[in-house]
Design a protein that fits this description.
With 217 residues, this protein is α/β, with parallel strands linked by helices. It is built from eight helices and six strands. The strands form two sheets. It has a four-stranded parallel beta sheet with strand order 2-1-3-4, sandwiched between helices. Strands 5-6 form a two-stranded antiparallel ribbon. It is 45% helix and 11% strand.
Amino acid sequence: MNWGYVRVSTNIQDETRQINSLLGAGVERQNIIVEKCSGKDFNRPLYLDLINNKLKPFDTLYLTKLDRLGRNSALLEKEIKKITTQRLCSIKFVEQSMLNYIVTKENLNTENDIFKGLLLYIVSFLSEWERGAMLERQRRAYDNLERNEQGKLISRRTGKVVGREKKVNSLTSEEKNLIKDWIKGKITCVRVMEILKISRPTLKKIKAEYLEEEIEL
């Protein structure tokens, strides 16, 4: 039987594209599990139910890309081994077919191709590294800037005032939680603007970057 797993990080992100991709690969809609959880680990109720209870030997699990399964390379390696060697199921990535792991009765005693295993590790590592590197670049960029007498950021190289620091970098944990409540629909945009003294365009920019996992709140 074919099963599909769709993951988005927040309640605001749209899972439609992933669902359509799995439908196009031949997975029936009632067999597609949609979960709204972070990919940092595998403590996800719907995912665990799928892997531990629904999947049967020689079923196939479909996902769009590797990062929909998870983002941590060490945990990904263990989870893929669990699915393929313990649950005896195949894994197919619709948009990364070079990473497909096919398990059949005929190849149970045959190890996966070493190059495919290496490629899997590289791609998973890059998924994790790219997100970490992006956040680190943002942090270092502002750490390396100095301020003039007016408190404005200046370039070490040119000594000139540079663009304004991202508002999100100066927010407290409580203020970030307030923005997350707005993204989840628990509070109005106007109310957040009044409390935090933030413009609507700035709020929308923070929301977009958060949903794309470019920043953390």
